[in-house]
Queue: 2 jobs
Job 1
Amino acid sequence: MSEIEREAMEYDVVIVGGGPAGLSAAIRLKQLDPELSVVLLEKGSEVGAHILSGAVLDPCGLDALIPDWKEKGAPVTVPVKKDNFYILGEEGKVRIPNWPMPSLMDNHGKYIVSMGNVCRWMAEQGEELGVEIFPGMACSELVYGDNGEVKGVVAGVFGLEPDGSYGPNTEPGMELHGKYVFLAEGVRGSLSKEVIAKYDLSKGKEPQKFGLGMKEIWEIDPAKHREGTVTHTMGWPLGSNAGGGSFIYHLDNNQVYVGFVVHLNYKNPHLYPYMEFQRFKHHPMVADLLAGGKRVAYGARAISEGGYQSMPKMVAPGVALLGCSVGMVNVPRIKGNHNAMLSGKAAAEAAYAAIKADRAGDELTDYETEVRDGAIGKDLKPVRNVKPMWSKWGMAPSLALGGLDMWTNSLLGFSFFGTLGHGKTDAEATGKASDFTPIEYPKPDGKLSFDRLTNVSYSFTNHEESQPAHLKLKDPAVPLKNLATYAGPSQRYCPAGVYEFVEKDGDKQFVINFQNCVHCKTCDIKDPAQNINWTVPQGGDGPNYPNM
């Protein structure tokens, strides 16, 4: 709000987001020039509080950024020892051997990690170099310069009135200005979304595609624990209803990460991704592993899956998009953290060169060139057709054709298929309820499977209830129209139970329980009418993930 007077602070580079991309950029800037002033703003209560990832980490990003990370005590200590891939039926499984898979799919030499803890460690490295890191500081607005360039952000607004207005107890926040602003907000960040729209950065690109990743941490029977074992599955319970699959990673201390991904381009609006995850755990292979164990944490996060052809232009005057703000996940490898780190490093090097040349507020074109032509592009381009194949032709054909395409790309440098498009957005892919049969889901048993609100309590989510809802409806009438046409999919696609339809005085009403929100952004992506706009709540609110 331009009429609000705020104090402004000047920096060389302002970074929004304390994930692997933002932290890598901050560290690299200070490595290049300790005199550069660098500030990093993180909306979570601490760095790592909002980080959720699988994760099997390819250490190439860390190797490039901090070559002596082992000596410095990085929490990257569980190497992958065994790699399994299964196609599941309701009762059985078929193992896909490793030998026909392209070498890029091999997880040996990779590490099972908590990316939350890796980011906490990276923040320590940054602070030792002199990076100013401020957690609990949500960035709610961009600040534009006289020539239309991005020159900063507004951060630290607290105590808004319930209607969103400024009251007597509102803290108006501060403006943080930089020669360059890096947006490293992760998937579907609100400021990145604004920049992409304002500067038309997606022009000529394929639409971005997404998945919803849900994850639980389990402590299991030590007799069943196999440290360093990585298992991925496809097939049951999703079948033909949706693309997706699972991951089971055995880390240390008898803990296992159990995760499930549903591609958000599913058509049947009756699909309930959270319940598909809960049903998955009742497969005999998974149920046997988890029996006698206990779930200790839960969370959910959207994943960018569009790949190489969906990456928007990454730079505009004064601003650069990093990591998942662009979408750098290698879908078949189920990895993106290494590319996020490499993107942060590349953006830092481009900004450093620009600042040394007395530039400011222009486009860091060298950054974009490095991403598309360097290590990140070389990682993403060979696998660019895997996701559109799956979307167009289903699991079995895409396994065969995608494997062939990855082999020809990696060995011969070309694809028989060229570059396939994605077509519709995930929101547009949603079909009408009348065209599909409702899906019956078994009731959670409280041992292996859990109701949604109980599980949300294991995300340790908290929002100040007096603040305005950070989930904004463009048109309050649309949810009831969605109920009539699409059976109200928001009450199912949200993995945190934020949205519900309640009966009041004989009428249906749409209720937003924003206190439950785990900041996954699925609603912003999947709502058929694109009527829900996810914005940041006040700083420090949201999930408080321990070891995700």
Note: The mean pLDDT is 95.
Job 2
Amino acid sequence: MAKTKILFLIALFVSCKIGTGKNLFDPNSPASLGLLLLGSEPVVTMEFSTNRVQPGGVMYVSTNHDFTTKTEGLKLPISGISDSPISKIIPRSKYLYEIRMKPSVTTGRFRINLKDYYLNESLQVNPESFEFEIDSEPPILELRTGNGIDISELESGFLDIVANEDIVWDGNLSQVGLSGTAKNTLVVSDVITSERNIRLLFAGNPNSNGGILTISFADIKDKASNSQGTLMLPINVYAFKSGPNLNVARRSCVGVELDDGRRLVLGGRAKKDVMINGNGTLSHAEFYDSVSKKFVQGPDMVYRRQEFDAVKLLDGRIFVSAGLGGKIGPSNDALTSTEVFDPISNTWTEGPQLADPRLFHKMTVLPNGDVLVVGGLSPYKPIQSVGSVELVHITNNPATMTVEPIGNLSDSRGKHTQILSHEAGKVIIFGGERSDVFGPLTNDFTPNALETIEIYDINTKTLSKSTAKLYKRFNHFVHRLKNGEILIFGGVNSRFDNAQPVLRAQIYNPITDTIRDHKNLLFGREWGSSFIFPYGKDQLIVAGGLEYRTVNGSTFDSIHDTESWSESNNRFYMTSRSLNARWDGCDIRYNSVGGGMILGGRIGDILGNTEEYSFE
């Protein structure tokens, strides 16, 4: 008898046209009939309309099982809690049920345990469980690159907007609007949507000065039907715009933003025939007033300085060291002096003397507040690079600050870069120019670009040489990445007639002491304004500098075009143009709001003009 039953079932399955899809779950299908004849109950399927629902909202479940014949109807037991968010289940037909939520439950994730419940009734259930969330918050939109973009990203034709959750939206042009100071003739020409991304395509032109672009989205909902109605997304559009003129045109200066928001430019070299304190090397300082958009004179430094360095201390004071210059008088000397600017009293106070004079050196503020002074070039002829490293112990009173000799680099160098690695507890010193003197005359020296990397250990106060090698370069840039690695790019590999730009970037890992090649710059540049700053989430922009254009390096030109590097895109790409193709200027980075200012420099003659890169 059993054998006959099996043969009958085989014949039944072969004779019936059972397609793919839902036939198995249809209670009247031959497959379910076959399961019934085999002594099994049909599989009960449930399909929920959403996994997110508002407080007091509704979701639906469709099924192949008629629960209206049961006394208790459809039951949906919630695992792990006594108070279910479900207030009522209403049958809309034999196979469709409305599930209403309690308005009092405003948040939470819940799991409906279907398997255990229906096992009591000897039913197979698909799925065995279902999770849903009570969601009272409307979706949030943001620019994929953060809250700021370069103006070139609008000119390129599209922006990507991302949502924090799946959205339900028609994406009609009538549902998108543009306003704000950056709009100009810009319009949205098309919209491409996916579950969590909106790509806006543009036509027309934004305001060349940048500004705020506000994008409005109407009727965007999430899967729980939450909506803000009209959602406004303001975006900071950065662009280069003309800034006020300096009171004194200068090159080889230093700029810094103070903790109180004031922006300060220091020292440098004045235009030809301009003499202040008896010399063209400046002690002159100026503040940029961002309200009046003018430069006002600040207190002079104690010393006239050019090719010096300045850092902001942990307490907000400014520490300045060395360079070429002096006090009042016509001569320029090699400086060992230091001084400190107190932004509260607006005064400069002389600090301790370094052991060695130096210019084109670098300083780094250490975690304990002390300042590491590394390398440089001596200003004496013939020019010789400096190998000594000194540590300045910072105190509240500059008169009590002291200088500790640390030792000598394996390769003396100036025009290098250095950066603090908090993860490794080290200052990493990259490349630079070493000048070897071979005779007594002015030009009796040989300049060499370095491939070496040296390391200062903060804890042991020792210097060591890395086994990793750079492409030889000086006057280059470094930037710390989010993962603690260091991006090195730009610079040149030599001086005089054989100078060539270094296009290849590299990434150094300070934990493993290894280096790897990265992408190429679009422009080889050195002597730039060192104008690199982050905006949005992960972006840098590089402006200004010189590019050598011939094989022997004898022809060069300053650069108008800027380029950006994105940590998420991991590449260099063209962005906007600066207003002036300048080099050997200085910059002030607006750490508080992003962007910054390029000041002075030269295009043939020394410049007094400035330009801001901002959205303000």
Note: Residues 2-15 form the longest helix (14 residues).
